[in-house]
Amino acid sequence: MIENIYAPFRLPFHLTFCIIATLFYLLMLKRRGSRHYLFLLVAIDLTIVPQFVPDKNVVFWLGVTEVLLLTLIFISIISESIKRKKKRKSKSIKDHIDKNLIVDAFSDDI
Fold first, then answer.
1. Computed from CA positions of residues 63, 69, 73, 74, in that sequence, does the dihedral angle turn out positive or negative?
2. Helix ranges, 1-110 (H)
3. Phi, psi angles (nearest 5°) of residue 107
4. d(CA 96, CA 12)
5. Could you give phi then psi for residue 100, rounded to 5 degrees?
6. Please, is 110 exposed, middle or buried when counting C-beta atoms within 10 Å of its C-beta (0-12, 13-18, 19+)?
7. Closest CA to 24 of 44, 7, 8, 9
8. Which tens digits make up the pLDDT trace of 52-62?
9. Is 108 a residue whose pLDDT tops 70?
10. How far apart are CA 38 and CA 45, in angstroms?
């Protein structure tokens, strides 16, 4: 069997890895709903392309695509983190206001 110099692993191991990674990231996407899991799933599954098309041009464009996907993953994680912080902050402000309303409702200062 001729070994493909562009593929990171031999085909059976690589295929098994991609299937396990796909199932894992689909589960994480369903559980948490974060977009970056979808981007990770696509990025990992695209690594199998050189197994079937060992052309330099294909591998080059695959590399460009992987870099773009990694950038999307990074941006997605940061934007979701910012949204989570804003949501937590607005929830704490709302809780603080609700506590003050309850305390004011039972005060005799009126």
1. positive
2. 11-32, 35-46, 49-52, 56-105
3. -85, 155
4. 57
5. -65, -35
6. exposed
7. 44
8. 888 889 999 99
9. no
10. 11
Mean pLDDT on 1-24: 84
Asked if residues 51 and 7 have their Cβ atoms less than 8 Å apart, the reply is yes
Residue in 39, 57, 38, 58 with CA at minimum distance from that of residue 48: 58
Instruction: Map out the domains of the chain as residue ranges.
Output: 11-105
Question: Which one, of 68, 69, 50, 71, lies nearest residue 59 by Cα?
Answer: 50
At which residue do the structure tokens 């599954």 appear? 45
Q: Cα separation of 86 and 64, whole Å?
A: 33
